[in-house]
Fold each of these.
Amino acid sequence: MDQQLEQLRAEALAALAAAADEAAIEAVRIAFLGRTGKISVLSEGMRTVSKEDKPRIGKLLNEVRNAVSGGVEARKAALEAERDQAALAGIDLTLPGIPVPQGAVHPINQMLERAVAIFRKMGFALADGPDIEDEWHCFDALNTPEDHPARNEADTFYLPDGRLLRTQTSTVQARTMELVAPPVRIIAPGCVYRRDEADATHLAQFTQIEGLYVDEGVTLGDLKGTIEYFFRELLGSDAQVRMRPHFFPFTEPSFEVDIKASALGKGDKWLELAGCGMVDPAVFAQINKKRGDQAYDAEKYTGFAFGFGLDRLAMILSGVSDIRLFTENDVRFLAQYK
Ligand code: DAH
């Protein structure tokens, strides 16, 4: 029996060495180790082996079984390695890989995301409006007289059908109030357009963020606190806010907002960064007329609004000296703002 076992082992290993694919390997396994395989059949002879030979032959039987099943696995692994080798033929795995360029968020959008996050903390919701607007939302609703210079064809892009590219995100104030009754607390970031000659600090397209808060008992103190909180979150706790009286058609009183902060790196200079004010009751009157109700009752509600450009802030905070770089889409420029 010893001899027979040794012979089966040799036979099986030779058959495995000759097996050229998985099916052939499996056939060998079944032929030797299967239920009716040669080794299994031979092992039935154990019953007739004498008592003293049993331990030795039993051990050998196990060895042979293990050798053949080990051989099956080894042959499978060898075939797999051969296949991998063939697949990699001619490929030099030591060559450096091809880098996949990684995109980055545009510096103006980075600025915008930061601004939105700060206002969200104060409970402002995001609102939206179209870039192509009508005169009502851009001017009439916002108490802007027919002869106001902003309505001039020289300042505003008009479409042949009389619509226009919005010159300010204040349009979203009108769009929001038209749809929802107070209280409203929204911010609206977006592109605005003016017929400006392009130079290092002007483009015909730029980005603004608008804010509007209407509720019972909203005061100028709330407006100042909101603006102060925003700029301190954005620029650091040394940011100082100064409000100077100004005129905007849709707010009364109106202010321009100047900021001084070491993050702005302008030494001790005040920088004019925003416009704001208390919503003019004349705006509420326009909205009520359009809505056909008295939802914006100026006896009951007051509100504040503000708006500022993001490009100038983004320029200062990211060290860009020419606004045109923002729209040229040169990846060498954009890649610096990861
Ligand atoms: N829309 C104004 C502009 O483009 C900025 C502005 C001023 C917005 C006062 C406001 C505001 O909401 O109350 O110059």
Amino acid sequence: MTLFDRIFGGSDYNFARTVAAIDDAIAAYGEGEAVSFPGTAYSLPCYYAVTGVKITTLGEMKAAMETIKGMVVHGNRLQNGFDAGIGSALCAEFLEALKYLRGAQPYTEPELGHLSDAFVRNLGVPLVTGDIPGVAVIIGGAEDPAETVALVKEYQSQGILVSLTGKCIQQLADAGYKTGENVRVVPLGMEMQSVIHVVSVALRAALIFGNITPGDFPALAKYTMQRVRAFVNAYKPLSDEIVSYGAGAICLGFPVVSNETENMFRVPKSLIQQLDTSKWNATSLEARDIKLKITNIDIPVAFATAFEGEIIRRGDMQVEVDGSRVDCFELVATKEAAEVEDHKIVVDGPEIDEIPVGSKISLSYTVEVAGKAMQPDFESVMERKFHSYLNCIEGVMHTGQRDMIRIRISKADFEAGFKFRHLGEVLYAKIKSEFEAVVDKCQVTIVVNPEKNKELRAAANEVFNKRDDRLKSMTDESVDQFYTCIMCQAFSPSHVCIVTPERLGLCGAVSWLDAKATNELDPTGPCQIVPKDRCIDEHLGRYEDVDEAVNKYSHGALEHVTLYSLFQDPMTSCGCFECICGVEPVSMGVVITCREHAGMTPLGMTFSEMASMTGGGVQTPGFMGHGKHFIASKKFIAAEGGPGRIVWLPKLLKDQMRERLDATALELYGVENFTDMIADETICTDDPEQLLNYLSEVGHPVLSMEPFDM
Ligand code: SF4
Ligand code: ZN
């Protein structure tokens, strides 16, 4: 038997059982029964991406089997093997989709099954920044469960996103290993066909970020090959079914590493036999050309971006730094070189082992930096990174900022020998490596003393207030230049964000100050200066300089972009936007929803559906991705009347933005408590008439605005 026989054996097996499963489903529910995965705008995303056809009913699914039949054709050309592999994968998608009929929830934790569009979009920023350098698709499990655990841990500690299919899920669960999206170890399902859910993520990335036309298979495969750094690690024994998926994976550019010995042949960088499974990590990274960002930090526990979302429960915590009850804060301060001793870390007060377990304590840390190119403006940029730095420590959870921080250190860390001093080690190492162009020397002082912290906090608050005053005075008019950000071009090759003081990047992670700092740290990097000398239209925010910049950095894909309009050449979206707004024609307002809100909006569309209207660096007048904080900016669709146009927001977003949005509306329209005039899902979900009634009832300012000039 050759490898080809095995591929065809697997695809034939899948084809036959998919036909039977569809027939069974039709017998039970009829051909008109709706079929789709939940939380996606792409119905059956793999089939849609590969063929361009959106399947919505069982009848259409049955008809689609004819197309798949054309792929599963025996032959001895390499292409036959690839086609059969893709066909087999599409069968797997159908089989999985059938599990979700009639709103069923076929998976229970730890298995996750289908992953939503929001999951894909959440990956955008970490993938482009290299915080997730790759995606490991682990299938099956080692004979010795400890070996599987070690492999997962190795990838996780490198920040690599891990998906699990089959036996490895049980092995990790038995070992008490934490899994889930928040720690970037994602169990798909016990059945082999569930591997399709990670393929679905890769293919949607191509549609969402890459603006690949569904059905353009060569473009799709080129995108996944070049931009999605995924690879497969498959433990022996491999069934024919898995072998057929492997052929599909290789066709999409994902190398397969296995210790299988039966009927294997090797294809350099694509099909790799590695009997020594302890080398799989190194072999896979090499095959996929994955380069890791390495920061050596001297702490007794792991440090990796995979731990950023880890949650430490009350019962698991050794101590808690609780800024909501006691005096705590975090601060970066610029000093003269002579005042800073590099790598000095001081703990002023008791260490963690002198504090009773379960205590809530007062703790502050001040990071003092010195450098010839250091500017006080960078202090807040660095400070905001602390959240991510400390969260990357395994067993440590950090929330909040400034004097409202909360840090939990786990019992497991305490037992591993973790000390307060190690918080300092992490801050030191990260600041020195990420800001090396501006920081020559850095020292950290950690104070664990309520009296001292009370005084120090008051002083820190004066610094924060001064910074806020400076930020408030910083408007688009008051600065001499804007910045580009093209970080997302790794996935959206023609997308450019223009970042201004009053309009942050749509991912929410890049403010004007961040862009400025990025530019100084890396003058040839993703943030380039855009002068603003040649204004064409102040109202729309149209500048010759901006047009030139977007044209240049989109490589000619874009000619005109305005800063303040939703209709006239709106800014493009990559795919990782925090929010999306869309025009609501009945009220002549705009509806905004965000990734965290899975529910319906008055446009009759969910976040995923609205998001699928734009993205991939194209302009879609009437729809625009943007950052959360842009909502409260005076420049938010200023050309169309400003934030007073907002008629609907998810409640969660209202609560987050209330204070700032109210202040902006008061200033712009003289309206008090504007946020309360905006509808949310508790007032109406999908009925524009109901929305309009509410707006009339509360006297929403949109009612006195001109209709849109669409
Ligand atoms: Fe991507 Fe724009 Fe954010 Fe830059 S500012 S990371 S280009 S979304
Ligand atoms: Zn992006």
